[in-house]
Specification:
There is one protein chain. The chain is an alpha+beta fold and 532 residues long. It has 20 helices and 25 strands. Strands 3-11-12-18-15-14-13 form a seven-stranded mixed sheet, sandwiched between helices. A five-stranded mixed sheet has the order 22-21-23-24-25, with helices on both faces. Bound molecules: zinc ion. The site of zinc ion has 9 residues, from loops.
Length: 532
Amino acid sequence: MSSQSTISMDELVALCKRRGFIFPASEIYGGLNGFWDYGPLGTELKNNLRDRWWQDMVRCSPTGPDGEPLSIVGVDTSIIQHPKVWEASGHVGGFNDPMQTCRHCKKLLRADHVADMLRESEWRHALLATLDAGDDASEVTVVAGALRNWAQRKGKKAAPGLALVRQVDEVTAALERRNGETIAVDELLALAAQITDGAPCPHCGGDLTAPRQFNLMFETYVGAVRDDDNKTYLRPETAQGIFLNYRNVLDTMRVKLPFGIAQIGKAFRNEVTPRNFIFRSREFEQMEVEWFCHPDDAPKWYEFWCAQRRDWWRSVGLGDDNLLLRSHDADELAHYAKTGCGTFDIEYRFPFTAPGYGELEGVAHRTSFDLEQHQEHARTKLEYFDQQRNERYLPHVIEPSGGLSRGVLAVLCEAYTPDPERPSKVYMKFHPRLAPIQAAVFPLVAKDGMPEIASKLYQQLRQRYVVQCDVKQNIGKRYARMDEAGTPYCFTVDSETLTDQTVTVRHRDTLQQERIALDAVGGFLAEQLAAS
Ligand SMILES: [Zn+2]
């Protein structure tokens, strides 16, 4: 496991591009902010994580508290649904983030991101540096002369929107009255920006408007006429597709409460400040289960799913130290979770959040909110008749909702392992079952029949595993490429193979090499992957 705070995101992003994991979308046109494309290795990695989830949640669902396998079925619903779905779900009215606009540079900012962005702001850093204070300082001593100097020189470029820069005489006159006083950094910023409340723009120092609501859904039109009657949305979550099919599943699948419906798919949110690589993007993938149960049993199932999901993330190789279960504060709860047990986040220590954590999955008690809403808006009965209890009710829902894109990012961060001793200086320590390439086959040199033996081995292994055969360059460079791709095993055909029918196996993590019989390679791989 890597120490997350020492990983540089720039280096990880560079490796992802260099080795074909993830590229900026529309890159030849300069990219499109908040959108990413998965390259050949990234696609394999994402599919492996996705398939593992489907296997562990649906095909071989977890064992419940009573020792019996849970009943979970899968669906794959439409990205575009009836516009009334999003009114019923609360997304049209309530899916808003408070936004602020900078009056100077016109940038749009999420109000809840401003404080964090300001802490990382370059002009704030420069301003504090003129007072010999660091970024973490909470108080500074006012030196009006130094601030005036900065405003007249570097400040013009660093913070063109800051009042101190635009009206230097007026603002420094105010600062001179406080000369030598020790004041809070926030107060100094307010003085420099000439604002009475809130914070100045993290980009330019300008004044921000009061927060106002901004809907995060992408709008589109169905059919040829672009009017309000035909307006609908790209789904902002996969969950609603499940609620819409709850009745269909009940009627066709012989399921009884409690049971779950699972879905993996894309969702879209027009994030105002997409950032941190694929962590906050505008198009992303979710892996969700809606678990329907009797209202009285909801607390029990809520606890079950919190623990179950944390264990699952561990099972795909995320380190225990990098995972955190965190209960939401009341003011953070989504509109559907205001009552009930609340929401638990399973968080991961990403390099850009370290030493803190960022959300990887949320386990929410959605109560009967969604079914109630659809029952009312669609004027259709969604109650369940429980034969055992002889009772009719709307089930409660526990929702473990994981980010597939965020999962890929967590797996990439966890795998990224610097190693100055290796030619590649870094290797990707993927869980062998998630690795985009499971094994590589190399002939040591391209002569003496070695390529033919390697090719035959490759043809045999590729039937069951994701394997690459590489004959180019020296063996050190080929190992380095596979280290960066995170390939756990490399098999090399050399001169000894010609005499004793054995090959070298190189283990990615230990660099250990051993010889095994050529005809035992398939069995070796099967055993290693099963044991991991
Ligand atoms: Zn600005």
